[in-house]
Design a protein that fits this description.
- This protein is an alpha+beta fold and 227 residues long.
- Helix 6 packs antiparallel against helix 7.
- It is built from 7 helices and 5 strands, in the order H-H-E-H-H-E-H-E-E-E-H-H.
- Strand 4 and strand 5 form a beta hairpin.
- It binds ligand 0O2.
- The site of ligand 0O2 has 10 residues, from helix 6.
């Protein structure tokens, strides 16, 4: 059963990849590119894991609780390229898509988000390509997260190549909110969608207050204990 479904998925992936490969692009070239994105994602994940280890020793708490990594599926890549009228070639994919390799870092407290982002950006092999601070400037629907597009070099057998990775930082509460809101976005027909959006916006505000207050409580506890 498992073997069969794996094979069907492989075929589906192959078909999706072939759909957007022009004459000079091959599946092998596409797979090599995906491998490079995966390596870049691992580089950034390791950097964040190292920071977490060091900072947790200094601060007696983990700056982040969870880290999630994903490579965009061929289906999503194709969908995004078509939506944005990007020519369907591997070179254009590499030039125009910033989120093929994605990392989500889930922190307990907002100040840890900025501390981790600053530490990552201070590293001399990291280049900041773009930054969107949806925490200081939330989206109109209430969405909050800090998004960084960074470039990191990967060292292959025959080349050193800079690769782009999207890193999203958010708190546990912001992540909880974004997961629910994401579900709504991808449902086609929802009754009372406007009232749900209003409720979500209200909850996003409550979450921001809650995150702020939890941080204040943590600071008081740390002061009290001399930590
Ligand atoms: P998915 O399926 O999560 O990957 P860009 O990626 O730069 O071309 P954009 O929208 O300018 O497009 O980038 P932005 O604002 O940095 O958002 C990128 C990602 O952040 C999205 O990826 C989502 O994962 C997340 N995001 C942004 N806005 C919202 C929001 O309002 N609600 C939720 N739940 N998530 C959001 P994708 O590719 O849109 O989707």
């Amino acid at each position: 059963m498992e073997k069969n479904s794996g094979t069907v998925q492989e075929l589906k992936n192959r078909e999706q990849i072939e759909m957007f490969l022009s004459g000079k692009d091959s599946i092998e070239k596409f797979m090599r590119m995906m491998m490079q994105y995966e390596c870049a994602m691992l580089e950034i994940k390791t950097k964040l894991d190292v920071l977490n280890k060091e900072l947790s020793l200094q601060k007696s708490r983990n700056p982040f609780e969870t880290i999630k990594c994903r490579i965009k599926s061929p289906e999503s890549i194709l969908g995004k390229m078509k939506k944005n009228n990007i020519p369907l070639t591997i070179a254009d994919m590499e030039k125009n898509l910033n989120d093929i390799a994605g990392i989500r870092v889930i922190c307990s407290f907002p100040d840890d988000i900025y501390m981790l982002a600053d530490c990552l950006l201070a590293q001399d092999d990291i280049t900041l390509v773009a930054k969107k601070d949806y925490i200081r400037k939330p989206k109109p629907n209430g969405y909050r997260s800090l998004h960084l597009i960074v470039e990191v070099p990967i060292f292959l057998t025959d080349e050193k190549k800079p690769m782009r990775v999207e890193v999203q930082f958010r708190t546990i509460a912001m992540d909880f909110w974004a997961s629910l809101e994401h579900k709504m976005k991808y449902k086609k027909h929802i009754e009372k969608a406007e009232s749900i959006s209003n409720e979500l916006f209200y909850c996003a505000e409550l979450i921001a207050q809650l995150d702020g207050r939890m941080q204040q409580i943590r600071e008081k506890i740390e002061k009290g204990s001399g930590a």
